[in-house]
Amino acid sequence: MKRVVSGIQPTGSLTLGNYLGAIRNWIAFLHTHECLFFMADLHSWTVLQDPAKLAEQCRLVAAAYIASGIDPTVSSIFMQSHVAGHSELAWLLNCITPLGWLNRMTQFKDKAGKDKEKANLGLYAYPVLMAADILLYKATHVPVGDDQKQHLELTRDIAGAFNQTFGETFILPEPMILGQATRVMSLRDGTAKMSKSDPSDLSRINLMDDADTIIKKIKKAKSDAFPLPGNSDDLADRPEAKNLLNIYSVFADKPLLQCCLEFEGANFSALKEALADVLVTALTPIRTEMVRLMNEPHYLDKILAQGKDKALSIAAETLKEVHQKMGMLKV
Ligand code: TRP
Q1: 97 lines ligand 1 (CB under 6 A)
Q2: CATH fold of the domain at 3-177+297-325
Q3: In which band, very low, low, confident or very high, does the pLDDT at 175 lie, cut at 50, 70 and 90?
Q4: Of the CATH numbers 1.20.200.10, 3.40.50.720, 1.10.1200.10, 1.10.240.10, which one belongs to the domain with range 201-291?
Q5: What pLDDT, on a 0 to 100 scale, did the predictor assign at position 223?
Q6: CB neighbours of 114 closer than 8 A, spacing ≥ 6?
Q7: Which family does the record claim for this protein (predicted)?
Q8: Cβ of 81 below 6 Å from ligand 1
Q9: Which residues are annotated as catalytic?
Q10: Is 175 within 8 Å of 227 (Cβ atoms)?
């Protein structure tokens, strides 16, 4: 049985980066794999959240999944915190994960900043919770953006360590770093990842941005002083041109090289106009559907309740097996 598991943290607005790097790539699995997609709210607490906004943010991510084409009748969409097994398995995995492995995690180093003494324990243990998210369902495939590659390698190492200590239990999941332009960069700095936590809203396209906002942001996107090249090799040291052409290539559904030829010798304004055009065409229906779904919270919550039930039933099987292998007392 092939099973896909993936998730996104419900922090702030969803960006074009989440859409291209994650959600859009999940659709391909809907009819070939059993699919479980969740909102990683436990992970989001590694940074202080506003309790008054969290529920709405979680619904917004669920709405984005569905509006982007994740059909809830053939997949399970649920909240990570609704399945306590994530936390429980994370604890058990914590106990077999050497600190040395966690000390190698580059995302912790980036997020903890200079004063590591002040970083919270959750941020440090984040990758183990992610391993639990995946192993709890014995996922065979995990489609994520390339910034999560190291966490998936750790997941495989933890699964291997568990299997070696307690006998064959977990499947080593296959990471799938999918699709072209999976790494969408900031519109203000072609060398930084497009991020929902960047202080400048001009750095990103949000899935909830309306057409005028998208056009404005693309117009203001950083460019360089040279005409566009006719060859993708010449994009290597031109991060802004590369980023815009990459995004254009995905939405215009043409290979990158063809896009380079299309704009060879042109200045950025021609590319920006075409890019804004394809973006507005692709994102408007998603935004419209998200707005519609957000006005139907009962419908969304019903989907999340169904997703929860399905996830709970798979999780219960795994936990039972883990308890047994670890020799927990059964009464
Ligand atoms: N850490 C992931 C991210 O920030 C989100 C995530 C949490 C995840 N648990 C996961 C992704 C399990 C895939 C599988 O993008």
Answers
A1: no
A2: Rossmann fold (3.40.50)
A3: confident
A4: 1.10.240.10
A5: 97
A6: none
A7: Belongs to the class-I aminoacyl-tRNA synthetase family.
A8: no
A9: 111, 193, 196
A10: no
